[in-house]
Specification:
This protein is mainly alpha-helical. The protein has a domain of about 25 residues. The longest helix has 23 residues.
Amino acid sequence: RKPNLPWTLHQMALGRDILETVQQCTLGRVPNGSAGFVVNAMSTLITLAQDFVNASDAPTKSEK
């Protein structure tokens, strides 16, 4: 049971964008007002990771 590859690549790309944003905030390139966005982004990334694990463990019923 392999996960859907395009979906996986999309999630990885999204995670990379979030990580790059976090790195920019760490380096002080992003206004302080974006801190809330980073927290939300990290929460989203964690949720996506959990969904990915659940999707990998579950039968591939989401495929149409």
